[in-house]
Amino acid sequence: MLTTWQRQPKPQVGERFMLTQLLIKGNLKMFIKENEDKYAPQQIGDIIWGNTESKLRIQDIVTGAEMLPSSGKSAILLYGTYGTGKTTLACMLPSAIEKGRSGEELNNPYDFIACQQGFNGPQVMKLIQDVLTKISFNKSGLHYFILDEVDNLTKLAQQSLKSALNTHRGLFVLTTNNVANLDKGLLDRCVLVEMNAAPTSAYMPLIEMIIQGSNVVLNDKELESIIHGSRGSFRNLIHNVSRLVRRKTSTTEFV
Question: CATH homologous superfamily of domain 44-194?
Answer without folding.
Answer: P-loop containing nucleotide triphosphate hydrolases (3.40.50.300)
